[in-house]
Amino acid sequence: MKIFSMFMIVGFSIFVSISPAMAEDATALEQKVQQLEQQLQEANRTISSLQDQLNEAKQVNAGQTSPDARQSSAVTAGGSAQSMPATAASEGNMLVQQVIEPAEIQERNRETPGSIVSLSPEQLMLGGVEDLSRVELLVPSLRYGQTGQDVRLSMRGARTNSIGPQGEQAVAVYEDGIFAATTTELRNAYVDVERIDILAGPQVTTFGQGAYAGAVNVVSHKPNFDGISGYAEAENGLPDKTRWRLALNIPASDTLAFRVAGVSESRSGWINNAFVESDSDDLKDRKVQTVRASVLWQPSDRFSVLFWSRYQDENGSGSAPWGYQQVGGYVEGELQPGNQFAAPGSSVDGGPWDVVRNYISAAEYENWVNTLDINWDIGFASLQWLANFTSFHGRQSYDNDYTNQGEVNSTPFAGWSTSQTGWSNELRLTSNGDGAFDWLAAFYASDRSADWGWLEAVNGELEQPSWDTVGDYSVSTVAAFGQASYAFTDRLRGTAGVRWNQQDNTYKTGQKGSWDDVLWKAALEYQLSDRSMTYGSVSTGYRPGGINTAPGVNPTWDSEKLTAYEIGYKTRFADDEVSLDLAAWYNDFKNVQSQSFLVMPYPGSPEATEYTGNGGVVDAKGIEAEVQWTPTPQWYVAAQLAYTNAKFGNYLAPNLAGLGDIPGHSQGDMLSFEGWHPALSPDWVVGLQTYYTFLLGNGGTLTPYLQTSYTNGFYASDYNLEGVRQGSNSRTDFRIVWLSPGENFQLQFYYLNAEDEAVLNWARVYNPAARPDITTLQGNWGNPNTYGIIFNYAF
User: Which phi-psi region, left, alpha or beta, contains residue 559 (left: φ > 0; alpha: ψ -120 to 50)?
Assistant: First the structure.
């Protein structure tokens, strides 16, 4: 199934001329707006005070949201919700001056004790979030790493170290509550997104498929009955980027509505390959088409059926599975820059975004997700059934000597290929009472099968090599979980949850293994005043163990365990113009898993063997803070800070040839990681976003926006070696948005990564089969500077 064309938009021309008379009218209008703002603030304070009194009378603090709203943003139960005073129109991401009252935010969600950040449509638009790669610029506690087509997220000392069909994500990613099973699916382009929720800490009862150390949930727009609406968007940028976005909502009747949306993007590669003069062989280009269709049938307020289906087709050059550049290597204990196993006469790469490769790499995949979401209010409770079927097909090939030498059409190790299918069912019963006691009970089951194998190139044709084991990898998960909350007083509330989880794995060799565990969480929150609250929580998480099918290594590895503690404080003051959210946390990791490589290949294989083991413990603690200041509906300032102190404790891994003697770490055949930092765990990350909206009278509004993020030095690998250390860096984005007086036309100009900073976001450290006597460092870098224009029309 291929999608070759999706959208067409007629070209446009906009010219705005403001005469001196119009400027005088604008001044008078601005004075009138300021008077109305003062009156509105007084009215809001009165409404908010009355709402608080009503909430206390009804003991709303003990209330539970419906299953449909359970992933909404929250400033309750220890939650942290980012909101902006200038919210976007739900259809077209248009800036509209509308104040969100704190009382409204506080009543959104009562179900998930723990830190939550919810990114609204305008935050996603202003932040340039088109996929998961830029979310870290808005949420400092989340770090983004990537190798090839695989995303490796990090949060609070936990990192996704393992990829492939057995890889367990440290930070789980969901689409409308549906788990994305592969790290490659995390690269999906976002289409018609309503918001993105980022939840820190283990998620024991939040989702059917539990999350180990954190979660990202992408929430999409649903069909609605408000009339025909939608938006169309066109973007043109550099390097040679063209992107189209379209959504259409059609209510067929009072009970039936349809919605269809899509994205089509084409751009040249960010990494210049100097092997040929044209850009045809550049790495990391992208050609993607995504369509999402949904239908909502709601015959009554008590019953609804939502079905949605999303299909994505992507192809391009890709890069390399574990990083596209050999940044250096250790030879007899000394770090040497560049590719240390390159053939004589090979050309040298020019920098992070300049390479020379003679074997043309390629990456392509298809992802099809289908979900049925049924909600039924049966009186005392709401019943939800969430059923899903997903298929995923992907293939990646690359130049495995990372040079312009070697055979162009044939190589014994060229990449990987996979074909996967999976289904899941979740049944959830949530109480509907408005008293002091709330509860939920749920059951979850899923099954996934993956035909995954390595590839070799023979005369330009890719095929599975004879040394690779033939067979499928499958995983079945069954879980039962529940949660109860009780309001002891109108200010004090407690929550407790428990989860039983069992996972059964079958490997390509026919070997089988089973792992189960009981997880739990507990939280207390106390409302100090009408505008401030405090909370404390503790929860557990685990990543199941597994079986190594490679020879010469430990045959199994154990489950990784996490106990997470958090306390927090939330307050609003200065007539709700200022909000302050503080959190302190501590994560205790046991049996930490790591993916390693060993030069003991399968018979006939020329490459190192991949395997997983347990190293030991990680101790992580930190603080997070967010402040937002909204002195007027036109002005917005927000700042975030994340401090992380994450270090390995008693942790051992096999030593690597070439490293030499590292004082305090080398222990014969073993290497101690004690005192080193987990990958992608910087000590300090600081973010700032600000804008001011200028009122242009009949000329609409003009909003300059600045976003910057500073990160101090960190390591892109668990091996804390020079060569994989990323120094302190900042990334700054500028954007200016013009909105028409009717608020249906929008024109943007953006300039991203103004510093043109090359950030090393993952590194693989291993002994290459071509030179097993050295340790090579293989890295992947983030995106360079880009800029462009976007035109959006909402109707």
Answer: beta
Dihedral of the alpha carbons of 337, 342, 343, 348, in degrees to the nearest 10: -60
Residues near 467 by beta carbon (within 8 Å), at least 6 away in sequence:
601, 602, 603, 604, 605
Q: What is the predicted pLDDT for the residue at 104? A: 36
**pLDDT tens digits along 148-164:** 889 999 999 999 887 87
Residue 65's contacts (CB-CB under 8 Å, 6 or more residues apart) are 72, 108, 109, 110, 111
CB of 75 within 8 A of CB of 570?
yes
**Cα gap 226→250, rounded to integer Å:** 9
Encode pLDDT of 576-591 as tens digits: 899 999 999 999 999 9
By the 8 A CB rule, do 580 and 625 touch?
A: yes
Task: Decide: 538 and 564 in contact? Cβ < 8 Å.
Answer: yes
Residues contacting 686, CB < 8 A, separation 6+:
140, 639, 640, 641, 642, 709, 710
The one-letter amino acid code at 139 reads V
Nearest to 262 by CA among 231, 292, 220, 229: 292
**pTM for the structure as a whole:** 0.86
548: left (phi over 0), alpha (psi -120 to 50) or beta: beta
Q: What stretches in the chain show pLDDT beneath 70? A: 1-114, 551, 597-609
* Tokens representing residue 371 in the block: 């979900």
What lies within 8 Å, CB to CB, of 38 at 6+ separation is none
pLDDT of residue 58: 41
- In one-letter notation, the amino acid at residue 500 is W
SS3 of 92-103: the string is CCCECCECCCHH
CA distances from 795 to 16, 93, 255 (A): 21, 11, 22
Q: Smallest Cα–Cα separation from 207: which of 439, 386, 437, 80? A: 386
* Residue 270 neighbours by CB under 8 Å, 6+ apart: 239, 282, 283, 284, 285, 353, 783, 784
**In this structure, are residues 183 and 150 in contact, taking their beta carbons and an 8 Å threshold?**
yes
CA dist 479 and 426 (Å) reads: 9
Residue 120 to residue 73: CA distance in whole angstroms: 9
- Per the listing, tokens 């820190």 go with 200
* Residues 274 and 354: beta-carbon distance below 8 Å: yes
CA dihedral 29, 32, 34, 40 (to 10 degrees): -130
Q: What is the CA radius of gyration of the chain?
A: 26
Give CA–CA dist 509/470, Å, rounded: 8
pLDDT of residue 412: 80
Q: What CA–CA distance (Å, rounded) separates 464 from 453?
A: 7
- Supply the pLDDT for residue 795: 94
Is the separation of the CB atoms in 715 and 725 below 8 Å?
A: yes
b vs e for 51-73, b when ≥16 Cβ sit within 10 Å of the residue's Cβ? bbeebeeeebbbbbbebbebbbb
Spatial contact of 156 and 622, defined as CB atoms under 8 Å apart: yes
- Cα separation, 425 vs 294, in Å, equals 19
DSSP code string of 310-363: EEEEEEE----TT-SEEEEEEETTEEEES-TTPPTTPPPP-BTTEE--SSPPEE
Integer Cα distance of 543 and 214 in angstroms: 12
Q: Helix, strand, or coil here: 184?
A: coil
Say if CB 41 and CB 576 are below 8 A apart.
Answer: no
The 3-state DSSP class for residue 405 equals: coil
* Nearest alpha carbon to residue 216 among 190, 251, 243, 252: 190
**Do 464 and 455 form a contact (C-beta atoms < 8 A)?**
yes
The Cα 779–Cα 724 span in angstroms is: 8
